[in-house]
Specification:
By secondary structure, this protein is an all-beta fold. The chain has no helices and four strands. It has a domain at 6-46. The radius of gyration is 17 Å and the shape is extended.
Length: 64
Amino acid sequence: MLEDVLEELDCPWCSGPRPFEVPPCADGHGEACPERVCTACSGALLLGADPAPSARRQHLAVVA
């Protein structure tokens, strides 16, 4: 993890504000990486991105 890049964010898994840090970025973003990792539970957040629409999948019927 990169040192001294902590910011306090609301962690949905810890149910409260926790320090988050920037992980090593394989995409070449460096410290501008949009990913953050909770230092308490290791939950990950993606900042500044709209969630991708989920593709609808057809449901299969179970026939007995």
